[in-house]
C-alpha cells in the first residue's frame, strides 16, 4: 500500500489553521504565563530521561488541537504503521525504509543480528589488539573514508560520545579536497592504521577517489597482500568493494532499505563501534529503539517527534519562518547540526508532491546552528533583534560528564536564560532606547536530558529522524529519496573531462567556461 497522498493545504484543518493564524500572528504572547499558570505544565512532555518544554511557543490550546487534527486528517498514524512494517514507502526508488529495523531488539531480523555480531567480534579484536597490522603491531588509528550519510552520522556520534571512547584514535576522510587527505595522512602510520571505506553504493566519486589515494599511500610501505589487514569496506555493493581489492570477509554488508543519512545504526557505524566499544554502540541502538516505540505507540499530543514536527510546520507554513536553529549546550554535540542538515534537508528539500505535482506551499526547513554558549557570542544577536523569525531548539543536559558543576551551572544558566530572554524580551520593562529594546515573543523548544549517554544520544537522534518523517508526510513529499543531488554529480563529470582535456569549450555555460579557462591558466 502506498503512503497517503493528501495535499495538506486542501484539508479542512489547514483552512482552520489559516484562520486561526490570522488571530495569532500579531499576538505578543509573553502574558500567557501570567494568564495561565498551568501553561508550563500543559506544554511539556516527560519521557524517560527527556523533558521537553514547548511552552515558549506562539501557540494556544487551540493551535495544538488544530495541529493534532491536521496530523489525523493527513493519516499520519497510517503512514507510521506503513513505515515500520516495511512497506515500500520510498516509492520513487521502490524501497522500504527500515532504519528502525536495525535497532528493533524485540524482533530483530536475523541478517541484522548477524551483522551486529560481526561488528562486535571485529571491533573487539581491533580494540584488544588481537587483530594486528601487517608488521604485527596493534591498530592504533581507525580512519572512516566516506561522505554524506557514510560520514556525518559516524563522526557526529564518535564526537558526541568522546567521553566513552577507548584508546583508538578515530579520523574521518570525507572531502575530496586532497589537502585534507594529505593533512589526515600526515599523522598516520600505515602499520597501525585501519581504513574503513564506507559507501552504500561504492560508486561515490569522492569516496572511491580518496580510498584510491589512501591505498596508494599505504602501498608505498606495504604490499598488496597486506591490504586485507588494513582495509575494510561497508557497502551494499559487494562486487564494487571486491573490485576495489577488498576481500569478501572484510566487507560488512548494508541493505537497500537503509538510507545513507539514516545508516549510522548499521554497519556504517563500525567506526563508532571501534571507538566506543560494542556495548556502548548497542546502548545507542537501544536508545533509538526506545524512541521508536514512543513514536509508534504514544498518543500524538504526548509524542515528542510528532509535537516537534507540528510546531515546525506551524512556523514554516503559517509564520513563513524559513529556517530553524538547533543549539546544543554541549561541546560534545558540535557535529550535531551538520548531521541534521543532511538528515533534514536532503529528506525534505523537495518541491514535487507525492502525486508528482509541483508544490505551491513551503516544505523543508533550513536547519542551522552550533553549540551554546559559543553561539550566543556569534549569531544570537540576530535571533534576539533581527527581522527574521527563527524558532530554535535548545538541547542541554542536567549532569556534566566530568563532574565540573561550576562550569556546568554557568553553561546551563545561559541555556535557560536565553530561552527566557528570547521569549520575554524587554516586554515587562519600559525601554526608552530603541537599540536596547527586545521584542521577545521568539519561540524555543527546550530539550533537557538527564545526561549525555549513548542511550540518550540514540533517543535524541531518533527524535529528529521521526520529526522529519512526520513533516514529510504532512507536506505530501517523499522524504526518503534524494534525486536533487544527482544533477550536480553528472555535470561535474563533464567538467572534470574538460579540465583533464584542458579544454574549457567542452562545458556548456559561458560563465563556467570562463571560470575554467581562468582555473586552467592558474594551474599551468
Ligand atoms: O550524494 C548524496 C548521497 O547519495 C547521500 O545520500 C549519501 O549519504 C552519500 O551520497 C554517500 O553515498 P554512498 O554511501 O553511496 O557513498
UniProtKB/TrEMBL annotation:
Pathways involved: Carbohydrate biosynthesis; gluconeogenesis; Carbohydrate degradation; glycolysis; D-glyceraldehyde 3-phosphate and glycerone phosphate from D-glucose: step 2/4
EC assignment: 5.3.1.9
Catalysed reactions listed for this entry: alpha-D-glucose 6-phosphate = beta-D-fructose 6-phosphate
Alphabetic keyword roster: Cytoplasm, Gluconeogenesis, Glycolysis, Isomerase
PROSITE patterns noted in UniProt: P_GLUCOSE_ISOMERASE_1, P_GLUCOSE_ISOMERASE_2, P_GLUCOSE_ISOMERASE_3
Main location: cytoplasm
Subcellular location: Cytoplasm
InterPro entries registered for this protein in UniProt: G6P_Isomerase (IPR001672), G6P_Isomerase_C (IPR023096), Phosphoglucose_isomerase_CS (IPR018189), SIS_dom_sf (IPR046348), SIS_PGI_1 (IPR035476), SIS_PGI_2 (IPR035482)
Function: Catalyzes the reversible isomerization of glucose-6-phosphate to fructose-6-phosphate.
NCBIfam families: PRK00179.1
UniProt record similarity statement: Belongs to the GPI family.
HAMAP family, per the entry: G6P_isomerase (MF_00473)
Listed name of the protein: Glucose-6-phosphate isomerase
Amino acid at each position: 500500500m502506498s503512503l497517503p497522498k493528501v495535499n495538506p493545504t486542501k484539508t479542512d484543518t489547514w483552512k482552520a489553521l489559516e484562520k486561526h493564524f490570522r488571530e495569532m500572528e500579531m499576538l505578543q504572547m509573553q502574558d500567557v504565563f501570567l494568564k495561565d499558570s498551568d501553561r508550563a505544565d500543559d506544554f511539556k512532555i516527560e519521557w524517560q530521561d527527556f523533558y521537553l518544554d514547548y511552552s515558549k511557543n506562539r501557540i494556544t490550546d487551540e493551535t495544538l488541537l488544530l495541529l493534532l487534527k491536521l496530523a489525523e486528517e493527513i493519516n499520519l498514524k497510517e503512514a507510521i504503521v506503513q513505515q515500520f512494517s516495511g512497506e515500500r514507502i520510498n516509492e520513487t526508488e521502490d524501497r522500504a525504509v527500515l532504519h528502525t529495523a536495525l535497532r528493533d531488539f524485540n524482533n530483530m531480523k536475523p541478517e541484522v543480528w548477524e551483522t551486529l555480531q560481526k561488528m562486535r567480534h571485529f571491533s573487539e579484536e581491533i580494540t584488544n589488539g588481537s587483530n594486528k597490522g601487517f608488521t604485527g603491531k596493534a591498530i592504533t588509528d581507525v580512519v572512516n573514508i566516506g561522505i554524506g550519510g557514510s560520514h556525518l552520522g559516524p563522526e557526529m556520534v564518535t564526537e558526541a560520545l568522546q567521553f566513552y571512547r577507548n584508546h583508538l584514535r578515530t579520523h574521518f576522510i570525507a572531502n575530496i579536497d586532497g589537502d585534507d587527505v594529505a593533512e589526515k595522512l600526515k599523522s598516520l602510520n600505515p602499520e597501525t592504521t585501519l581504513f574503513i571505506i564506507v559507501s552504500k553504493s561504492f560508486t561515490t566519486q569522492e569516496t572511491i577517489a580518496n580510498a584510491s589515494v589512501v591505498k596508494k599511500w599505504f602501498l608505498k610501505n606495504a604490499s598488496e597482500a597486506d591490504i586485507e589487514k588494513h582495509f575494510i569496506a561497508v557497502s551494499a555493493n559487494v562486487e564494487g568493494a571486491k573490485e576495489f581489492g577488498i576481500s569478501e570477509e572484510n566487507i560488512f554488508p548494508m541493505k537497500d532499505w537503509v538510507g545513507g543519512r539514516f545508516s549510522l545504526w548499521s554497519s556504517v557505524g563500525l567506526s563508532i563501534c571501534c571507538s566506543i566499544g560494542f556495548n556502548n554502540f548497542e546502548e545507542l541502538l537501544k536508545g533509538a529503539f526506545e524512541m521508536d516505540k514512543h513514536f509508534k505507540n504514544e498518543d500524538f499530543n504526548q509524542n515528542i517527534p510528532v509535537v516537534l514536527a507540528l510546531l515546525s510546520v506551524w512556523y514554516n507554513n503559517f509564520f513563513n519562518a524559513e529556517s530553524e536553529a538547533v543549539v546544543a549546550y554541549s561541546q560534545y554535540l558540535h557535529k550535531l547540526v551538520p548531521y541534521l542538515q543532511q538528515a533534514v534537508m536532503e529528506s525534505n528539500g523537495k518541491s514535487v508532491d507525492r502525486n508528482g505535482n509541483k508544490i505551491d506551499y513551503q516544505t523543508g526547513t533550513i536547519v542551522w546552528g552550533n553549540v551554546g554558549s559559543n553561539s550566543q557570542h556569534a549569531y544570537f544577536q540576530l535571533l534576539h533583534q533581527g527581522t527574521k523569525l527563527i524558532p530554535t531548539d535548545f538541547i542541554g543536559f542536567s549532569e556534566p560528564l566530568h563532574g565540573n558543576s561550576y562550569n556546568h551551572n554557568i553553561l546551563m544558566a545561559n541555556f535557560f536564560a536565553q530561552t527566557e530572554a528570547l521569549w520575554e524580551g524587554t516586554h515587562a520593562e519600559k525601554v526608552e532606547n530603541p537599540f536596547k529594546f527586545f521584542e521577545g515573543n521568539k519561540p524555543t523548544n527546550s530539550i533537557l536530558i538527564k545526561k549525555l549517554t549513548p542511550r540518550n544520544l540514540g533517543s535524541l537522534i531518533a527524535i529528529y529522524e521521526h520529526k522529519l518523517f512526520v513533516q514529510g508526510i504532512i507536506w505530501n513529499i517523499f522524504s526518503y529519496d534524494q534525486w536533487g543531488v544527482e544533477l550536480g554529480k553528472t555535470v561535474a563529470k563533464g567538467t572534470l573531462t574538460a579540465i583533464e582535456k584542458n579544454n574549457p569549450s567542452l562545458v556548456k555555460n559561458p560563465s563556467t567556461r570562463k571560470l575554467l579557462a581562468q582555473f586552467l591558466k592558474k594551474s599551468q
